[in-house]
Amino acid sequence: MQLAGVEEVRWLGSGETTVGLTTFLWSGRENNRHQEGVALAVHWKVMLACGSWTPINEHLLCARFKHSFGHLSVSD
After folding, report:
1. What is the spatial distance between Cα 43 and Cα 63, in angstroms, rounded to a whole number?
2. C-alpha triplet 42, 7, 45: angle, nearest 5°
3. pTM score, whole prediction
4. pLDDT in tens, 12-56
5. Whole-number Å distance between alpha carbons of 2 and 13
6. For strand 50-57 and strand 14-19, is the pairing parallel, antiparallel, or unpaired?
7. Is 76 a residue whose pLDDT tops 90?
8. What's the domain range around 18?
9. How many CB atoms lie within 10 A of CB 76?
10. How many domains does the structure of the chain reveal?
Protein backbone atom coordinates (compact mmCIF):
# COMPACT_ATOMS: atom_id res chain seq x y z
CA MET A 1 0.00 0.00 0.00
CA GLN A 2 1.42 3.37 -1.01
CA LEU A 3 -1.26 5.80 0.20
CA ALA A 4 -4.19 5.32 2.58
CA GLY A 5 -6.74 7.61 4.18
CA VAL A 6 -7.42 7.01 7.88
CA GLU A 7 -10.48 8.21 9.81
CA GLU A 8 -11.01 8.63 13.59
CA VAL A 9 -7.30 9.22 14.22
CA ARG A 10 -8.01 11.23 17.41
CA TRP A 11 -4.60 12.94 17.44
CA LEU A 12 -4.56 16.55 18.58
CA GLY A 13 -3.60 19.43 16.33
CA SER A 14 -1.87 18.68 13.06
CA GLY A 15 1.51 17.41 12.04
CA GLU A 16 3.50 14.63 10.51
CA THR A 17 5.43 11.72 11.92
CA THR A 18 7.33 8.84 10.36
CA VAL A 19 7.05 5.23 11.54
CA GLY A 20 9.24 2.83 9.61
CA LEU A 21 8.70 3.48 5.89
CA THR A 22 5.39 5.32 6.38
CA THR A 23 4.77 9.00 7.07
CA PHE A 24 1.49 9.98 8.71
CA LEU A 25 0.07 13.42 7.94
CA TRP A 26 -2.78 14.28 10.31
CA SER A 27 -5.34 16.93 11.06
CA GLY A 28 -7.27 16.80 14.32
CA ARG A 29 -9.04 18.86 16.94
CA GLU A 30 -7.39 21.85 18.61
CA ASN A 31 -9.44 21.77 21.83
CA ASN A 32 -7.65 18.96 23.76
CA ARG A 33 -10.50 16.52 23.08
CA HIS A 34 -9.30 13.30 21.48
CA GLN A 35 -12.24 12.96 19.08
CA GLU A 36 -12.51 12.64 15.31
CA GLY A 37 -9.44 13.48 13.19
CA VAL A 38 -8.15 12.31 9.80
CA ALA A 39 -4.77 11.23 8.45
CA LEU A 40 -2.99 10.09 5.34
CA ALA A 41 -0.53 7.21 5.60
CA VAL A 42 2.06 7.78 2.86
CA HIS A 43 4.88 5.42 1.83
CA TRP A 44 8.29 7.15 1.84
CA LYS A 45 8.68 6.88 -1.95
CA VAL A 46 5.34 8.64 -2.47
CA MET A 47 6.24 11.19 0.22
CA LEU A 48 9.17 12.30 -1.97
CA ALA A 49 6.58 13.58 -4.47
CA CYS A 50 4.54 15.45 -1.85
CA GLY A 51 4.85 19.13 -2.66
CA SER A 52 2.61 20.37 0.12
CA TRP A 53 -0.18 19.42 2.47
CA THR A 54 -2.67 21.49 4.40
CA PRO A 55 -4.59 20.54 7.55
CA ILE A 56 -8.05 22.08 7.29
CA ASN A 57 -9.98 20.76 10.29
CA GLU A 58 -10.66 17.50 12.13
CA HIS A 59 -12.61 16.22 9.12
CA LEU A 60 -10.39 17.26 6.22
CA LEU A 61 -6.81 17.62 5.03
CA CYS A 62 -5.43 18.05 1.53
CA ALA A 63 -2.10 16.88 0.09
CA ARG A 64 -0.64 17.67 -3.33
CA PHE A 65 1.67 15.24 -5.12
CA LYS A 66 3.71 15.81 -8.28
CA HIS A 67 3.75 13.05 -10.91
CA SER A 68 4.80 12.66 -14.54
CA PHE A 69 1.51 14.05 -15.89
CA GLY A 70 1.23 17.04 -13.53
CA HIS A 71 -0.17 17.14 -10.00
CA LEU A 72 -2.56 15.05 -7.95
CA SER A 73 -4.51 16.50 -5.03
CA VAL A 74 -5.71 14.06 -2.38
CA SER A 75 -8.22 14.98 0.31
CA ASP A 76 -9.17 12.91 3.32
Report:
1. 14
2. 5
3. 0.90
4. 999 999 999 999 999 999 898 899 999 999 999 999 999 999 999
5. 24
6. unpaired
7. no
8. 3-75
9. 21
10. 1
